[in-house]
């Protein structure tokens, strides 16, 4: 738990500096430490130093960018240790923002945002208000696709080789892909590869809106008209999902192990061979096929898209936040503003150096080098609308993304955020139980044996008390906001 005195002093110092120097940095004296959820690439050190030099030149602030691997495992340890740092990645999934707020790890940004109008103008009031937790803003969203909706992509070469007609093929849900995996087995003699499809935004494909982050009990069926919070792990939808994944493994249709997007390149095949893969994306977004092509050199085509949902959970899905014990809160918000408003800074950090890591094919489009790889997750850095377009992406992909965001279904409880303080113990206990039984969601473990054991352990962990508290909070919120 962060010291309240340290938080108070940080806020007082921040406001004092803003009042005394108009929100500018202290003559280049500040050197920020940013634990970024990005990749360690061969030329990362040079790129990171260039970004720091650019920030020093533009706003008088230098920054030490640390690309942290195993972010969800390491960042909580760093936070608990009291280590000195300033900017941190947080989200509704990795380095959970709700837990961070409950633990006092993050600085409330409302006053600082009032002094950085260019940053505040990046988003509408609806977005800022939807991202509030306990009435405060604790992170700056990374401008990207907010209309979250999971989907599936088939390797493009398979469409022709397997005779798939996507205009008539009813790939509406995971279950519909059984014929796809049967065809792979018949034609190749082996199983197909399928990533974890319940992780992240996966439950949304079943009509669930998650309230306290991925992998935690507590959802509503957001289109049902009934806003009661339920435990999705006791739903028929979840049990059906477990049984389907298990049956596919037993029948040799899908792999008996975990795979991720980084494994795609292991299973690529020449264009005249079937690629044994069905890709799962947490969020269908304009240009996703081009992003996969640019990062993994594999052509993919969407075969299923779930309708997008804008929720408080999706608005905090990727954020830049400030350590509540940061010595430089003003400088930190200024640097975050730069990441979101300055194209040169964003493009350098995301794509590297022109002529080395990419070649420009137009004013705002590039093709990445095949000889000097430099790949970063654009969505984890800042305002993706300031990026380049890649081969396979339309020139107006960012305008398309904005249009999707604007037209998406709004959660009936947009703006509701859970106070996790009274349920911290139950959340920790439930998280430990679910981690223990994670293999069921991949079909590796038999749910007939382990599912009853998991439910029993969740009961002991306090899942019923957790769900009851969530219902109380939601009922109180609805009484004053609807």
Describe this structure in words.
It contains 18 helices and 14 strands. With 482 residues, the chain is an alpha/beta fold. A five-stranded mixed beta sheet has the order 2-1-3-11-4. Strand 6 and strand 7 (219-221) form a beta hairpin. The radius of gyration is 23 Å and the shape is globular.
List keywords for this structure.
482 residues; alpha/beta; five-stranded mixed beta sheet; three-stranded antiparallel beta sheet; 18 helices; disordered N terminus
How widely separated are the two ends?
34 Å
Number of helices: 18
Strand order of the largest sheet: 2-1-3-11-4
What is the multimeric organization of the chains shown? single chain
Please specify the SSE layout and strand pairing.
Layout (H helix, E strand, L loop, with lengths): L3 H18 L9 E6 L7 H16 L2 E6 L3 H11 L5 E4 L6 H6 L7 H5 L2 H4 L4 H6 L9 E2 L9 E5 H6 L16 H11 L19 E3 L8 E3 L14 H15 L28 E3 L6 H9 L3 E6 L3 E2 L1 H4 L3 E4 L6 H13 L1 H9 L6 E5 L2 E4 L28 H11 L1 E2 L13 H13 L10 H15 L1 H19 L1
Parallel strand pairs: 1-2, 1-3, 10-14
Antiparallel strand pairs: 3-11, 4-11, 5-8, 5-9, 6-7, 12-13
Helix pairs in contact: 16-17
């Amino acid at each position: 738990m962060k010291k309240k005195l340290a938080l108070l002093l940080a806020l007082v110092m921040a406001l004092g500096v803003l009042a005394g120097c108009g929100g500018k940095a202290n003559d280049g004296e500040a050197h920020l430490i940013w634990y970024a959820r990005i990749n360690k690439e061969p030329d990362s050190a040079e790129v990171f130093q260039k970004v720091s030099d650019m920030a020093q030149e533009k706003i008088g602030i230098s920054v030490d960018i640390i690309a942290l691997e195993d972010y969800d495992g390491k960042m909580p340890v760093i936070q608990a240790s009291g280590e000195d740092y300033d900017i941190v990645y947080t989200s509704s999934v990795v380095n959970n923002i709700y837990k961070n707020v409950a633990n006092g790890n993050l600085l409330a940004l409302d006053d600082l945002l009032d002094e950085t109008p260019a940053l505040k103008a990046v988003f509408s009031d609806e977005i800022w208000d939807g991202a509030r937790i306990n009435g405060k803003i604790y992170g700056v969203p990374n401008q990207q696709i907010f209309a979250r909706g999971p989907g599936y992509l088939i390797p493009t070469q398979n469409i022709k080789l397997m005779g798939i007609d996507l205009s008539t093929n009813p790939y509406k849900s995971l279950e519909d892909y059984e014929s796809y995996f049967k065809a792979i087995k018949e034609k190749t003699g082996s199983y197909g590869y399928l990533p974890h499809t319940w992780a992240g935004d996966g439950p949304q494909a079943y009509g669930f809106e998650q309230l306290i982050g991925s992998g935690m009990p507590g959802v509503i069926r957001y289109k049902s008209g009934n806003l009661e919070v339920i435990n999705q792990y006791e739903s028929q939808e979840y049990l059906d999902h477990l049984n389907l994944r298990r049956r596919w493994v037993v029948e040799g249709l899908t792999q008996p192990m975990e795979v991720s997007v980084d494994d795609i390149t292991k299973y690529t095949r020449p264009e005249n061979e079937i690629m044994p893969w069905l890709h799962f994306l947490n969020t269908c977004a304009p240009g996703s096929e081009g992003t996969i092509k640019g990062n993994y050199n594999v052509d993919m085509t969407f075969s299923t898209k779930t309708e997008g949902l804008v929720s408080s959970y999706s608005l905090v899905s990727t954020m830049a936040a400030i350590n509540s014990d940061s010595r430089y809160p003003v400088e930190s918000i200024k640097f975050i503003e730069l990441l979101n408003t300055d194209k040169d800074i964003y493009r350098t950090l995301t794509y590297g150096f022109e002529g080395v890591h990419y070649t420009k094919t137009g004013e705002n489009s590039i093709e990445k080098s095949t000889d000097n790889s430099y790949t970063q997750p654009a969505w984890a850095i800042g305002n993706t609308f300031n990026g380049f377009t890649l081969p396979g992406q339309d020139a107006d992909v960012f305008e398309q993304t904005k249009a999707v965001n604007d037209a998406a279904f709004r959660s009936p409880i947009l703006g509701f955020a859970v106070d996790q303080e009274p349920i911290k113990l139950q959340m920790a206990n439930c998280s430990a139980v679910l981690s223990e039984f994670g293999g069921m969601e991949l079909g590796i473990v038999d749910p007939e044996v382990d599912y009853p054991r998991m439910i029993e352990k969740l009961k002991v962990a306090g899942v019923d008390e957790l769900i009851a508290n969530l219902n109380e909070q939601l009922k109180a919120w609805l009484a004053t906001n609807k």
